[in-house]
Amino acid sequence: MKYMALIYMDPNTRTPPDSPEFGKMMSGYQAANEVYKKDGVWVAGDALQPITTATTVRVRNGRTETMDGPFAETKEQLGGYYIFDCANLDEAIRYASLIPHAAMGCVEVRPVMVFDR
To answer: Is the pLDDT of residue 73 over 80?
Structure first.
């Protein structure tokens, strides 16, 4: 079953790219990615550009409306994701716990809905 791990973090506590902590954090992501690929659970994953680059799209009465920025103001914002192919939720949670931002933000794990075609 596929699970999506949504990585949330507070942008005000983001690790600066020019800091030693950033290198340590990225090493954690590299190590996690190696485990995911070695174990055969990695389907996809990426970081997202900052929330300031977001565009929200709504269609109302047949008209497309766009708005700069996120839909909702929240302390923690979506910063990236992984999709894992795991046997069960417990396994997906185990892999999500390897994501470095789980220690400073949170990771939401959800099963991907499958529609019969």
So the answer is: no
Given this model, what pLDDT does residue 70 score?
Answer: 63
| CA 84 to chain CA mean position, Å | 12
User: Does 70 fall in a domain?
Assistant: yes
The per-type count for the chain, helices as H runs and strands as E runs, is 2, 6
* CATH number reported for the structural domain that contains residue 86 in this entry: 3.30.70.1060
> pTM of whole model > 0.70?
yes
Residue 96 lies in a domain: yes
What's the structural domain count of the chain?
1
Q: How far apart are CA 48 and CA 80, in angstroms?
A: 5
Rounded to whole angstroms, the Cα distance separating 28 from 26 reads: 5
Cα torsion 103, 33, 8, 24: sign: positive
Domain contains 116: no
Determine the structural domain holding residue 36 and report its residue range.
2-111
Dist. CA 106–CA 109, nearest whole Å = 10
Q: How does residue 67 score in pLDDT terms, banded at 50, 70 and 90?
A: confident
